Amino acid sequence: MADLRLQIRQTRPIPLSVDLECATGHLLALVGPSGSGKSTLLRMIAGLSRPQSGYIACGGQVWFDNNNHMTPQQRRTGYVPQHYGLFPHMSALENVKAGLHHLATSEQLKRAREWLARMHLDGLQQRKPAELSGGQQQRVALARALASDPSILLLDEPFSAVDSSTREKLYSELAELKRQLLIPIIMVTHDLNEALLLADHMTLINHGHTLQSGVPRDIMAHPCNEAAAQLVGMHNLFDGEIIEHDAVQSCTRLRLGAHVLDSPYRPQLTPGTSVRWAIPDNGVRFRAISRAESVNSHNRLEVMVSKLLTLGDEVRLSMQIGSVSAPLLANIPLRLATELNLAAGQHTAVVLRAGDIHIFANHE
Amino acid sequence: MLKKIEIQLNIFTLLLCLLSSSVSISALAATTNIAAASDLKFALEELALSFEKQSGQTLALTFGSSGTFATQIRHGAPFQLFLSADEDYVLKLHADGYTLDQGILYAVGRIALLAPASSPLILDSELKGLAALMQQGKLQRFAIANPKHAPYGQRAQEALQHAGLWQDIQPKLIFGENVSQAAQFAVSGSAEGGIVALSLTKSPQMAKLGHYAVIPAEWHTPLKQRMVLLKGVDATAQAFYAYLQQPTARAVLRRYGFTLPGESE
Amino acid sequence: MDWTALWLSLQLGFMTILLLIPAALFGARWLAYRRFTGKPLLEALLAVPLVLPPTVMGYYLLVVLGAQSPVGHWIMHWTGQPLVFHFSGLLIASLIVNIPFAVQPMQRAFEAIPQDIRDAAACCGMSSWRALLNVELPLAWPGVLTAMVLSFAHTLGEFGVVLMVGGSLPGETRTIAISIYDRVQALDFDSAGQMSLILLVFSAAVLALANGLSGRFGRSHG
């Protein structure tokens, strides 16, 4: 039961109000824009920064509460800072050994060599950090963090400084490590794809507040509010009004301007209330339309392309739905745009897939 | 690794210095320190040399302005013998309890007009040449010791006042910390001339660099130079004090232009 | 050539860095790592000797430590001699006057250590002391060396303060700078010129050595 539990409340120097949990062997992704406080949280878990109030416990050991603050040295965390923090005057081997001074020298060397081998860094032991590539540096930093057998692994944007091909390799290695280590892993990132690939759990943080916690896929599909939606990349946000609930068809009808849309059945919402709702990019369908047919699909909307931007193989569209002020945004492949003859000022039709419409419970 | 060697070397060197300096400090506690007015610069050095040869003991001489020394002694400067250019300083120190006794008059000093070899200044005892140079507008700078704390500076001022030149010469004056520095200014070419101690102009070094004319003694208050032993004096200082009153010492002082007490010019 | 004076100056320089650098190192490190209200004020205070005329410093030392002051009396009572007009007085003056030369280079050097590295050292379980020896000093040593060199060179050149509280006593407070001044007054330009040249060459050599060392080894860390 080496879980991490955290609750932080503070107003200075930066406001924070966060609750977190991470189970052993799981990876928790902390996602948020820069300045949201995620790096600060990581440092607090490591013991490098003292919160105003709250508690932090790992594996039953209370690391911080209102009477007590254990130092980083006492906590035994494996911490990999954003730029790795490798000691530039020491070789890779010496860096990894740095955390092992409580062991006998022969044991230190043995362990350090083992970990370097495990991270596929054989033959690079004597090199200084300046002589290693970004990916190699990252692995040394990981080896250093893990060699001392820590009770938790903390990673601060571990992949932001490496190129994409190295990144792919590192993802696999981290996933593999996760299986082998039996400790909680907390990873700060602003990249949602990374979170989707690696994390068992995700917590969204903005302005020092937890917005939403849960399984990444769920959060992506059902952000709890507008701020969360924007963080997970949902750009299509609209006003709407609940018209009615249809228990037979199992859907709730929603007004958007002059249109009526079907959306997932949410009987708890009172008809007549104004709501905010969102739909992800892939909920906006173009192929359901074919020029010859006039299929009366649910949620079919006539739109006008107000902006069209071609970027390589992709086309970014901004469309106007009747008199609705908020634009409908979508990215589609170039060949589809060509097929549909899309251009600025062109009229076309789209279907909003009912199941992808997500209504926010609170008006925030 | 190199850093460690560096650190060790430095520590070693520094400890060595610490050790030797503590040795030197304790040795210095035994030095006989003598404060002497700057006009005695050359005369006293000669006298100290012969004393050291004769007695086998060492003296540490410090030269400066009498006023500065008086202040330093009040602040605890460890001098054992003070040779002032003005007896007022000695008498005041005695009144305030810093000295063994009232001391003794050892010489009467004189001032002289000094000019470097290259100067346009014509030397004469009545300062007429100086007045002429000033009227021609050719006097740029004139050096005297600082009248505030140097007796020779005060007397220079008095002499210039007597000659009626003080008002006009004021903007041209440069002040030496003590009369030695004034003499150095006067011959170095930074000034057309100056009024300094006669004893300084009589030294061989000065003779090479400039010429002088003695200024009449009536033009200023006499420079009664008094010396005194201070509290905490040691045997060497006392011996030197006695030595300076011997005929041989008096002869040397006479050679440097001093009038001895009890003798006329 | 006044060898006593030169030796005295060297002693003053060595003792100043022996006593000042360790204390300044911990002070500089503390300042580098902390942020608190009033820090700018404290830093300004420590930098005052940079702009204070040496004679002002000398004046205050005379007033505070001289035989006529309470502190001076106390010292006289316990040691039998005053601080002023003694090597110890010069040393105290030198320690105070060199504070900015010692603290600032080291503070900059510690500040330049990336936060990530210090964080990593702490999470590696290194105590503050171990981190200083194994991580921080190997990275900040050019700053420490600069501090030592600047303080030493500055001490060699000290004049105003020494004049005020020293009294130019040979072998005790007549440093080489004072000796040069004395020689000029005595019209002994040969001697003055000799000593000045030695000082110039010595200072330049020490600075060049320090720069060379920190350049060569500093570069090895990239």
Any idea what the CATH superfamily of the largest domain in chain A is called? P-loop containing nucleotide triphosphate hydrolases
- Return the CATH architecture of chain C: Orthogonal Bundle
Proportion of residues in extended strands of chain A: 25-35%
- What series of H and E elements makes up the topology of chain C? HHHHHHHHHHH
CATH superfamily of chain C: MetI-like
- Count of distinct structural domains of chain C: 1
Beta-strand percentage range of chain C: under 5%
Mean pLDDT of chain C: 88
CATH topology of the largest domain in chain A: Rossmann fold
Could you explain the architecture of this structure?
The complex is a heterotrimer of chains A (364), B (265) and C (222). In chain A, α4 crosses α5 (134-147). Chain A has 364 residues and is an alpha+beta fold. Chain A is built from ten helices and 21 strands. Chain B is α/β, with parallel strands linked by helices. Chain B has helices spanning 2-28, 41-55, 66-74, 87-95, 128-135, 151-162, 166-169, 179-187, 198-201, 204-209, 235-243, 247-255, and strands at residues 33-37, 60-64, 81-83, 104-109, 111-116, 142-145, 173-176, 193-197, 210-214, 223-229. A five-stranded mixed beta sheet of chain B has the order 2-1-3-10-4. In chain B, strands 7-6-8-5-9 form a five-stranded mixed beta sheet. The termini of chain B are far apart. In chain B, 47% of the residues are buried. Chain C has 222 residues and is an all-alpha fold. Chain C has a single domain, classed as Orthogonal Bundle (MetI-like fold), CATH 1.10.3720. Chain C has helices at 3-33, 39-51, 54-65, 70-79, 87-97, 99-111, 115-123, 128-157, 160-166, 176-185, 189-218. In chain C, α2 (39-51) packs across α6 (99-111) and α5 runs antiparallel to α9 (160-166). The chains are: A alpha+beta (364), B alpha/beta (265), C mainly alpha (222). The A-C interface holds A 43, 46-48, 71-73, 76-79, 81-89, 98-99, 101-102, 128-130, 141, 144-145, 148 and C 114-127, 130, 134-135, 138-139, 220-222.
Brief summary:
The complex is a heterotrimer of chains A (364), B (265) and C (222). Chain A has 364 residues and is an alpha+beta fold.
Outline the fold blueprint.
The complex is a heterotrimer of chains A (364), B (265) and C (222).
Chain A (H helix, E strand, L loop, with lengths): L3 E7 L5 E7 L4 E5 L6 H9 L6 E6 L2 E5 L2 E2 L2 H4 L2 E3 L11 H6 L7 H14 L15 H14 L5 E4 L7 H17 L4 E5 L2 H7 L2 E6 L2 E6 L1 H6 L4 H6 L4 E11 L4 E6 L2 E6 L9 E6 L4 E2 L14 E12 L2 E8 L6 E6 H6 L7 E6 L5 E2 L5
Helix pairs in contact in A: 4-5
Chain B lengths: L1 H27 L4 E5 L3 H15 L4 E5 L1 H9 L6 E3 L3 H9 L8 E6 L1 E6 L11 H8 L6 E4 L5 H12 L3 H4 L3 E4 L2 H9 L5 E5 H4 L2 H6 E5 L8 E7 L5 H9 L3 H9 L10
Chain C lengths: L2 H31 L5 H13 L2 H12 L4 H10 L7 H11 L1 H13 L3 H9 L4 H30 L2 H7 L9 H10 L3 H30 L4
